[in-house]
Amino acid sequence: MASFFDWVLPSTYSTNKEVTLLDRKLGLLYVTISLLVFAYVIGVRVVLEQGYAESEIAYGVSGVQLNGTTYTVNSQTGAIVPQDVASLIRSGVEGGAVFLPMRSVVSYGQKVSNCSTPDEPCSDDSDCPRKAPIARGQCLTDVGSCIRTQWCNPGADGSYKDGQTSNPFAGGAVTTNTDVLQDLSRLTITILASVEFNDFGGISLSNDGGGRTRWTISQVLQRAGMTEAEAQQNGAVLDVALTWNCPFISSSTSCVPILKVTQLKNSFYAQWANYYRALPDETVQYRDLYQAMGLRMLVSSTGSGTQISLLMIMQQLFVILALLPIASLLADTIMTQCFSERRHYREYKTEQSPDFSDIRAKVEQLEKQSQSRQAKAMNYA
């Protein structure tokens, strides 16, 4: 029966035994698995994934400017009006973005008055909201719209009875004259951009030193997968990005950016106004309202670069050293589990020693008996 010490203290110890087996099949198996490990590290991690290089994603700055001259055609009268940058870019200067109106409506000479609201149809006063002092809950039955205090359009008789819709391009047909921008190949955008790789010693790249900086609007639409007709109808929001892809970057690297255009939204609406006062009564304020569907282009600059790194190379060497024991483990498993002579392999690989703890106990017992006989002999003498 096992004693208490046998349960507390382990009575066995396992250690590895190095056995050299002279078997051609085992040798080929081990070499094949080792070659697969080398092929994975070198082919996949080093060559395919470029594990020998360090990479960095950099975000830069960019600016955009519209250039060129084209014209618009009125949808009702067919009138042709030349358009340049000063007449097209009227919504203010933006940083890293530009808005190009493709289809626009202009409402001239508006002033604040009480007039009908096309966005609020009604049949009687109960259909109109009562929110003083702007809305008094009155319905203009002959027009079928609610009356409120707002910016009103001048009528043919000089009265201000008609209001302006919030978006004349939504839903049905536009009731006022629409100017549609034509021949987009005449317009170009100039993009100046740069990126800086801080992890690689502050290497800076720019397209101002001989790289391409100008593209036509037609080329931008083509890269976004849009036609000019689609842009003229609804406009769009476009992400216009200059992308640098620079392998093995250095201070003397000549890296050319690529223009990538992505359509973020298939429509874009904007409106703005010019305010002024006119004679004879300069106390009255007027405005000209511009409403347009167009292209909003958001310009950005990004870059990716790589450099050969000694640290990454050492990491791949450590990966090889860590994976090589797998070859021995798989060879041992296949040898002891799958081969026809697996029983002989197990006998060579695993060996059980005699119980040295029993031998030690017998030696101690013999030493005690010898000491006891010597003591008796001395006492007898």
UniProtKB/TrEMBL annotation:
Transmembrane feature ranges: 27-48, 310-331
Major localization class: membrane
Keywords recorded for this protein, A-Z: Ion channel, Ion transport, Ligand-gated ion channel, Membrane, Transmembrane, Transmembrane helix, Transport
Entry-linked Gene3D superfamilies: atp-gated p2x4 ion channel domain
GO molecular function, one term: channel activity
Entry GO CC: endomembrane system; membrane
Keyword check for Ribonucleoprotein: no
Subcellular locations according to the entry: Endomembrane system
Any Gene Ontology biological process: signal transduction
Family: Belongs to the P2X receptor family.
Annotated PANTHER family: P2X PURINOCEPTOR, P2X RECEPTOR E
Protein name per the record: Uncharacterized protein
Protein source organism: Haptolina brevifila
Lineage: Eukaryota, Haptista, Haptophyta, Prymnesiophyceae, Prymnesiales
